[in-house]
Prior knowledge:
Elements: H1 2-23, E1 28-32, E2 36-41, E3 60-66, E4 69-70, E5 92-95, E6 111-114, E7 118-121, E8 136-138, E9 141-146, E10 150-158, E11 164-173, E12 179-188, E13 194-200, E14 215-219, E15 224-225, E16 232-235, E17 238-241, E18 252-257, E19 267-272, E20 277-283, E21 289-295, E22 298-309, E23 314-325
Antiparallel strand pairs: 1-2, 2-3, 3-4, 5-13, 6-7, 7-8, 9-10, 10-11, 11-12, 12-23, 13-22, 14-17, 14-19, 15-18, 16-17, 18-21, 19-20, 20-23, 21-22
Amino acid sequence: MVFVKLTFTLNLLLASLAASAVGADFPQAEISNKVIRAKLYLPDAERGYYRSSRFDWSGVIESLTYQGHSFFGKWFDRYEPTINDAITGPVEEFRNEEGALGYNDAKPGGYFLKIGVGVLRKPDDKPYSFGRYYDIVNKGRRVVRPSADRVEFKHEIDDGEGYAYVYQKTVRLAGNKPELILDHSLKNTGKKTIDTSVYNHNFYMIDKQPTGPDYLARFTFEPKAAQELKGAEIRGKEIRFLRELQGKGDSAFSAITGYSDSAKDNNIVVENRKVGAGVREIGNRPLSYLYFWSIHTTVCPEAYVHMRIAPGQTFKWQIRYQFYTFAADGK
Length: 331
């Protein structure tokens, strides 16, 4: 048994070292405003860190530090560039009722469009699954412009079936403030209406602390869980963890209601009381849906925004992340 454990540990170490060595080859950029320092993985069809079919390739944040605290990182065990959730930082997914634009209309072997990713092949007649990898047959055209305190992304695509867009996203740091801003613009350049929602999965892992009683999520309204939050509970305007979550299979998750149709409720705080660090996420559009999901390594409030964009029209939205510190518990 000892030999097996040692072999398993050695394999994990070798895999980690190999991933680190390969990581030097991933296109990336560092930005700073002397208050915050962040590292981003840049989209690249051949060498990019993330090449899967779920999340937007633009703006993947590998790490962000403020006053000695870290807020994002590698929360998952297994890495391959085509694993759907092998991704870090505040990352976004575009999703509608059918899963992606044109999915239900596509025949097996036909194509559909995933915003931020490209034109994908539908392999069979099964319902769309975000956990499944779909072959990317048209990656579109990308432009990436890094600078000292920001990175600008542009993605253009036309699926040839009536869907087309110009998507622009800027990840920037605000002046000398501890604030990260995501500016978005989605222009419909096709013939079909774009009807979709977008959310940020966030993947918070403050100082790599395990998810448990030291964490909380706070809202501007009194949240209501659609199902039992195993391992957590709602106290007033907060979600509190009752115990430390254990392993990948132990999770706390539920759809959350109670918010209004005002953008003021798109305002969510996540704190770790043990280390004395937190982040406030503020969106400038009303919530259309809200989901909460956490496992041992990460805490994830997922705020959805809905958009319906007619041909020729543009939809814009913004998310601001404000990082802060406070007196840690027991200090």
